[in-house]
Amino acid sequence: MSAADAADVELGLDEDAPKQASMCWLNLTSSLRRQIRRHCVTRYLVGAGVASCAACWCISYRSSIVKVDEVYEAGVQFRNSSRGMKGTRINAAVPNHTISADDRTLSKISEVGFVALAALFFSYRQVVEARRANEEARKASPEYKIEQAVDKFMQKFQPTLSQSHIVWRPVIDSIRCRIQNWEQDATLVSGRHGAGKTVAVQEALRDMRGAFQFNVNVAGWDKVLYEELGIETKSMFKNVLDVAGAKLQNLNGNLTKTPILLLDVPRETTGGGDAMKLVSTTAKELATDSKKAHVLICCSSAGIGVGI
């Protein structure tokens, strides 16, 4: 190997580097052009129309100033020439200013400019209204609602209490081990009132993606769950779990690869036995039959005897 080749290798020179840099530049400029076409075309058109109309107005305004100056000078000359003619009635007027073809052209340009500005403003309003209607239609679509619900699942889980207020207990490690090795069936965390069941489960889920907590307070709590997620039906909820599960499979470093639905059942639930039966049915359907989600249930010992 020659000294020049050795120097090239040492410096890391590459013959394809200029070509790669050129390709990167082309990709960047094409991306910028797409963004401009997508978001800024209407603004540029309106800006150009406003600028042209302003220029036409300035020309017309300047022309009117010149006309006023000419009329004023003619009036001054007339008054100077009429001095000394005391006692004489003068039936004379300031000479009329003749409108030339250039003046008519400037006036027409100004009129056309204002008409163009009004048309551009109307078109811009139409574009804004169309975009607003499209955005509202997109937000009303089932796909958008499912996407928003998946985003709620994929956010990092944040417990109610800060970590500095938590006393680590072995049950937290047990819950995390269960989550990591889950295959099917629901997980029931029970105990007496005030034992710290919810705190332990929340701490086990801290900073974990794919978990969503819901408090069971009424008999038909599934409708309230759908409302909190921004969806409408059970089929949409199952689609949310499918999409969230697919994202979790490709997410590295997360403890769970399956969506987690945390159902926190208070000591005294308004729905009573009906609410608990729906909890049991949902857990069986999602965690045992379809395995779409790992259902975690926090419930007091009294609630277990009611419906689970």
Walk me through the structure.
- With 308 residues, this protein is an alpha/beta fold.
- The chain folds into three domains: 3-39; 41-140; 151-307, Rossmann fold.
- Helix content is 63%, strand content 7%.
- It is built from eleven helices and four strands.
- It has helices at 3-11, 17-39, 41-81, 101-140, 142-154, 170-180, 197-204, 221-229, 234-249, 273-289, 301-307, and strands at 187-191, 211-215, 260-264, 294-300.
- Helix 6 packs across helix 7.
- The longest helix is centred in the first third of the chain and has 41 residues, at 41-81.
Residues in β-strands, percent: 5-15%
Morphology call: elongated
- Provide a count of the helices: 11
Secondary-structure content class: alpha/beta
Give the C-level CATH assignment of the largest domain: Alpha Beta
Number of structural units classed as domains = 3
Distance between the termini: 79 Å
**Low-confidence parts lasting 5 or more residues at pLDDT below 50?**
1-14, 85-94
Strand order of the largest sheet: 1-4-3-2
Strand tally: 4
**Gyration radius, rounded:** 38 Å
The biggest beta sheet is recorded as:
4 strands, parallel
What is the fold-level CATH name, i.e. the topology of the largest domain?
Rossmann fold
Which CATH architecture of the largest domain would you pick?
3-Layer(aba) Sandwich
Mean pLDDT rating:
76
| Order of helical and strand elements | HHHHHHEHEHHEHEH
